[in-house]
């Protein structure tokens, strides 16, 4: 199994480490590789879009000619985990808590509404306990960094965890989105769950 991490900007190194830990726990012989170019995208069985700054990630992906091929691959069924900025990239409906709608390059294939910077600025980042029982875990402490919120889901999107009336983890088939940073958490469960989607 080859797991790709979109490696332009944001917490891609932390995701690579957490993915390696998850593969080790699952006793799966797998590779974790950075993805920046189309030929690298073509060799992976699943891809993680990390947290960071969604506008930056989108603009660079577009400049590298990767945005459209990535979108096509995802529509064809490539498993994708989008965390924080990555969840923003996946959403069909995106706006910013302060400035409302403004255009940015997105993948835009997931039936979710995401509001960027929902909790405010960097200093409003926080940790919270969320219930991971729907993916086979228990309560886990996770971190939200200048996080977005998923406020609406429709179609085949299923809520896997929530916090105070917003959704923190949502799945729609091969698409998995979290508004928190699972790569900065003590539990590898989200990555293990994502690997199980790749295995399917
Ligand atoms: N605030 C960032 C954005 O809107 C996301 C923050 C993150 O990924 N930690 O793109």
UniProtKB/TrEMBL annotation:
PROSITE patterns: GATASE_TYPE_1, PDXT_SNO_1, PDXT_SNO_2. Keywords: Glutamine amidotransferase, Hydrolase, Lyase, Pyridoxal phosphate. One of its GO terms (cellular component) is cytosol. It catalyses: L-glutamine + H2O = L-glutamate + NH4(+); aldehydo-D-ribose 5-phosphate + D-glyceraldehyde 3-phosphate + L-glutamine = pyridoxal 5'-phosphate + L-glutamate + phosphate + 3 H2O + H(+). SUPFAM superfamilies: Class I glutamine amidotransferase-like. Belongs to the glutaminase PdxT/SNO family. Catalyzes the hydrolysis of glutamine to glutamate and ammonia as part of the biosynthesis of pyridoxal 5'-phosphate. The resulting ammonia molecule is channeled to the active site of PdxS. This is Pyridoxal 5'-phosphate synthase subunit PdxT. It comes from Acidianus manzaensis. The lineage of its organism: Archaea, Thermoproteota, Thermoprotei, Sulfolobales, Sulfolobaceae.
